[in-house]
């Protein structure tokens, strides 16, 4: 509790997202907090927020519109800024990603500098800002920031980080690793090399870091941290995908040669991730608990149909592989992007 027993006034953006909805769940019953949620009005957000309407203030608006942001920036102590357009939409519509991610963050910062200049600004960035780390998977905060070719999302995150650091706010930045839950399969599946090192983190643990950070402002202010699940959450993309396919009844990863790219994505192991854990103590999950939860969430019907239709499902998935398409079309630019050089086909 703050001085004079006043409640901590928090603004949460992106509360309908995977991490944001978990932050909302962890904050909603805290009697020491006065919570305001700002989000775009969609069927998804309305459904997620419906159980909580009596426990917080929910304001619908567009973060890319300054006048909407001004309605929620007054008299706040903390901002947890999670709102963003993410891949694959961010890469398919880069102008939209820039408008929401960059302009939205700029609006938020500028509005808070005027209306709540003493607030603590917590920003969610991404491991994608480091780019391809297949050859050097051990990542530290001070490493070069070189987004992969075509990664529009990472570019917006880098720009946002610059805006946050140049602002007059008290701030911290968490660069999130692979946040895994309810992932929709998309063509991005084939962009990641199978030998990529992954450090996953569950939405529950990730949210706990932001929630616990509210009370650790002195230790976090002015610093950037890598946020991941730790060594107990590290695996290869191939092993992770194979275990996931098995859970859904899809069998082996028997895709055509060259279906997966061999370069130019992101992810790795956060060699300095323990620094944030030592401050916030947010890690409860590991790789095994993640797969246990995932298995529990898969309905028998979904697994049944996955098993019965595994071959047409995988045939369809393979048809979306852009690395394979690049080779079939002899698209030299895309071949260079996915493989570095022409490969046998």
What does this entry show, briefly?
The protein has 345 residues and is of the alpha/beta class.
Report the mean per-residue pLDDT as an integer.
94
Q: What percentage of amino acids are in beta strands? A: 15-25%
Looking at the structure, the CATH topology of the domain at 3-181 and 200-228 and 263-284 is: Rossmann fold
Number of strands: 12
How would you describe the overall organization of this protein?
- It is a single chain.
- By secondary structure, the protein is an alpha/beta fold.
- It contains 15 helices and 12 strands.
- The protein has helices spanning 18-27, 43-49, 66-70, 89-92, 94-115, 152-166, 203-213, 217-220, 237-247, 274-280, 287-297, 300-308, 310-319, 322-328, 332-339; strands at residues 8-13, 33-39, 57-60, 78-81, 120-126, 138-139, 170-176, 178-179, 197-201, 223-227, 234-236, 269-270.
- The longest helix is centred in the N-terminal third of the chain and has 22 residues, at 94-115.
- It is globular and about 60 Å long.
Secondary-structure blueprint:
Elements: E1 8-13, H1 18-27, E2 33-39, H2 43-49, E3 57-60, H3 66-70, E4 78-81, H4 89-92, H5 94-115, E5 120-126, E6 138-139, H6 152-166, E7 170-176, E8 178-179, E9 197-201, H7 203-213, H8 217-220, E10 223-227, E11 234-236, H9 237-247, E12 269-270, H10 274-280, H11 287-297, H12 300-308, H13 310-319, H14 322-328, H15 332-339
Helix pairs in contact: 1-7, 5-6, 7-10, 14-15
